Amino acid sequence: MHTSSHTVLYDPDGLIEADLPLDREPYECLVKAVLAWTGEDTLAERDYEQIGLQLTGHARAVASDVRRRADQLPKSSGHRALADVVLREAEGRLSAPLEGTVRCAQNRARLVRALYERLDHLETTAPAQ
Prior knowledge:
Blueprint: H1 15-18, H2 24-35, H3 45-71, H4 78-95, H5 102-125
Helix pairs in contact: 2-5, 3-4, 3-5, 4-5
């Protein structure tokens, strides 16, 4: 007999994580560091891949927050339309294969920065809950 102390939750709409704030500061520091890299920076390919994976996962989490906030706005809202454009762009960029290069890591860092900028704009325009 096998017992487990873990409980599997079924949350297809992401409602549980919707109330959890993102751990923003470490990722903003990572984005800043990655974007400061010059051509002389040399890490192993697997290190660039790991950084890219971290940024990809966080970009997906921020994109989910952007989507939730945008969905609270009226369909005719300009802020919602702009969020839709940013999210489509993010989806396209995140679907590109991850490479172990400076360029790829920096592209993911730029994406995280753009998503946070959109999230910040939506937070100032979102209706009161």
